[in-house]
């Protein structure tokens, strides 16, 4: 199986769905008799920094699985389509995966996309696996939608509780991006922090396309909180923190796993010191496979991945799909979405190489330890583990 090359990345596939035609970047083994599944992720647009690395991790996993004989001798075939993290494009790509490519299961991410394509999964009875999106609403999207990634009420709740109980911060300000992830994550942080005994002294939203945050930050400066929690994206987080410091706000900043990215430190320099982030995947000191994974990135890409925990989950995605196919084959069932869902509920417990044990709950949720890290001397270092 070859890596995604420039020609493949630039190839445009017309998706004639109504009057809509969108670009789609395709990476597929395409061999007859292979076991197909879909991967709908942003390979272009504002979230491509994350999406491209997540896709690369999934490609490595497929190659690694197939190099060891695939699933009982049958090769995995991952069909990759670009969503640009846009709900409408997500609908187009998933319509193609289900109606043209006829996949029984697909992986996707970004909360707005996961929500937008859920009706397709339920209508067509195709299993949708959300890997990396964190809106709590994902657990309520229907019988065919499951997450393999803990939702925001896991890590954001742990962070808010730790901030009050262990760090001793009694007042907090919350600044959040006005999208599904931001709104839901901010709401959870506020609720948990107040329940612990803290007080939210400022609660401000900003537009998804904003580049200027002075208005909201001036309100935070007047409120003078003990800590500032930002529920944003990797693309806007450095700008928000930089403008905070320019306005003289020196409070410590926390955020969720989107902030666990070397680009944040690169862009902010010393302004990143003290930043607290969450991770829902074990680090290299917790799992020896992760250390080898990071070295693989350094050797092949000459850098560490953008959003390490997310790439770990995306690497594990094909392994989970392989386990589903193995169950279906063992039970001599056709590879349909209905049977992939039966496999997920029957297997239930998975042992995955990068993120470890995974138990899929009947409530469509999963739970994992929460790893807190902080920036010290220009690098992320462990702060606490909350189980």
TrEMBL record:
Q: Does the entry feature the keyword Transport, yes or no?
A: yes
- Family the entry assigns: Belongs to the leucine-binding protein family.
Q: Where is the Leucine-binding protein domain?
A: 35-378
**Which GO annotations describe the biological process of this protein?**
amino acid transport
- Which lineage ranks, top first, belong to the organism behind this chain? Bacteria, Pseudomonadati, Pseudomonadota, Betaproteobacteria, Burkholderiales
UniProt keyword list: Amino-acid transport, Signal, Transport
Q: Which PANTHER family match?
A: LEUCINE-SPECIFIC-BINDING PROTEIN, PERIPLASMIC BINDING PROTEIN OF ABC TRANSPORTER FOR NATURAL AMINO ACIDS
Instruction: Look up and give the organism this protein is from.
Output: Paralcaligenes ureilyticus
Q: Which PROSITE patterns match?
A: TAT (PS51318)
| Coiled coil region boundaries | none
| Pfam families the UniProt entry points to | Peripla_BP_6
Keyword Repeat in record: no
This one is known as Amino acid/amide ABC transporter substrate-binding protein (HAAT family)
């Amino acid at each position: 199986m070859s890596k995604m090359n420039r020609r493949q990345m630039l190839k445009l596939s017309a998706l004639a769905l109504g009057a809509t035609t969108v670009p789609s970047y395709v990476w597929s083994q395409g061999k007859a008799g292979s076991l197909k599944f879909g991967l709908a992720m942003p390979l272009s647009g504002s979230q491509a920094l994350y999406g491209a690395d997540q896709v690369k991790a999934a490609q490595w996993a497929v190659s690694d699985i197939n190099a060891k004989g695939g699933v009982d001798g049958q090769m995995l075939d991952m069909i990759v389509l670009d969503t640009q993290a846009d709900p409408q494009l997500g609908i187009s790509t998933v319509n193609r995966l289900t109606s043209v490519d006829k996949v029984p299961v697909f992986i996707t991410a970004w909360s707005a996309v996961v929500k937008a394509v859920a009706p397709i999964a339920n209508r067509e009875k195709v299993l949708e696996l959300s890997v990396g999106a964190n809106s709590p609403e994902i657990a309520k999207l229907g019988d065919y939608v499951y997450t393999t990634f803990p939702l925001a009420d896991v890590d954001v709740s742990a962070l808010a509780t730790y901030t009050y109980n262990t760090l001793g911060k009694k007042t907090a300000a919350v600044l959040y991006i006005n999208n599904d992830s931001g709104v839901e994550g901010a709401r959870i942080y506020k609720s948990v922090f107040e329940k612990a005994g803290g007080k939210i002294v400022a609660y401000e939203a900003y537009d998804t396309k904003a580049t200027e945050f002075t208005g909201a930050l001036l309100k935070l400066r007047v409120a003078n909180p003990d800590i500032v929690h930002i529920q944003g994206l990797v693309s806007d987080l450095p700008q928000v923190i930089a403008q905070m410091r320019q306005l003289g706000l020196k409070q410590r900043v926390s955020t969720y796993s989107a902030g666990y990215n070397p680009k944040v430190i690169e862009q902010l320099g010393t302004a990143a010191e003290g930043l607290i982030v969450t991770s829902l995947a074990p680090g290299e000191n917790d799992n020896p496979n992760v250390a080898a994974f990071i070295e693989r990135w350094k050797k092949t890409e000459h850098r560490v991945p953008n959003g390490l925990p997310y790439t770990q989950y995306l690497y594990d995605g094909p392994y989970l799909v392989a386990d589903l196919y193995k169950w279906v084959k063992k039970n001599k069932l056709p590879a349909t979405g209905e049977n992939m869902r039966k496999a997920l509920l029957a297997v239930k417990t998975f042992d995955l190489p990068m993120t470890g044990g995974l138990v899929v709950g009947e409530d469509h949720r999963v739970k994992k330890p929460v790893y807190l890290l902080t920036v010290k001397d220009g690098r992320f270092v462990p702060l606490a583990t909350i189980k």
